[in-house]
Structure formats: structure tokens, C-alpha cells
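Troubleshooting log. The previous structure file for this entry was overwritten by mistake, so regenerating from the original sequence record. Sequence copied from the archived sheet and checked twice against the printout by T.R.
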Amino acid sequence: MHLSKRFQRVALWTNILAVGTLVSCLGARVEPGGEVTLLDGLQIDESRMTAQLDGDRLNVGMVLEQKQDRVYRGVIKAIISDLDGQTQAQAQSAFYLDEKERRFKLSFSGLPAIESDLDLARYLIKYRVEWDRRALYGSRSAYAALPKLEAQVFAPSRLHEGTASFMRVLTRDPTSGVATEGVDVSVSLE
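Regenerated output below.
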């Protein structure tokens, strides 16, 4: 069956209007799925998002990057939710970006008792960066945002029992690749 071009255009516009009406009726309760990390020259680099425990507070750092030569100002909103989707804490901060990149910090309090970094695996950081009626949004595991070190061991391919051998260990930040000094490393061979 061949449909006329006019009928196809009418059907397309009817679908567009139906979706637009649904979104306008539901308003802010509708968030498109997935993540938007780059829009209109503003980017959030999730790989550089950090989380750090400081007593009973969780500090989250986010890097906003300017991809177009302009000034951005707006608000950063974030919630910490558990894996069941229940909000545990929230924070927001105004932002102003007039340079290539800048790190912003949000501080969360009131989280259930966190005894170690491993407990952060139970939480997600859900963020939204709003400016000029636009938004970046997404989520990241709080545990994945903890600072980590990567270790690489350089040693002979064969070690002989009873003989001395030397090893070299390189530690670095796995995200940036920058070497870290003064890290205590212990190695045991079995």
C-alpha cells in the first residue's frame, strides 16, 4: 500500500504533537533515559568524578569542561541514592564556568553509617547540571568515583629459589596515568 507524502507528513506531525503533549503534561517528572554528558559546548567528564569520605560526609568532585568559548552559569544538583533508588542525601551548588575547565565540589551529610570505602558500593551519585533551560545528567557509582591506584610490577620472568632478585613497582592513577610517589607496597610470592 502506497501512502501519499501529505498523509505521511500529517502522521509524523501527529506523533510529534502526541509526544510533546505527553511530556508537557508530565513536566519535570519525565527524564529521558540514559545519560547526556555533552550538550551545547558544556561537558561533564564522569571518569574524573571523585568521591571521598571525610568523617560523616561524602565529598563529590565533578569537572565541567568548556568546549565552546563562552560563559556557562547554572546549578549542579545531585542526590545519593541506594541501589533500590531511595534518596539518602542531596546537595546542590551554583556554578560559573568562564575557563576551559573547573572542578566543583558537593558535600553530602546524613548518609547511613559508612564504615569503609567498600560500603560506598551500595550508592549511586545521580547528577544534573542545569543552565539556560538545558541539562546534562547521569549517574555514577560512588565506589567507582573513589580514588584508586594501579600497580605494575617489573621483575625477571624467572625467580630462582635461594637467590636475590630485584623488582620495581610503578603506581599511578589509572584515570590520568600520572605516577604517584610514596605509596607503601608489599609483595608476597607463593
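The chain has one helix and eleven strands. Archived copy saved in two places this time.
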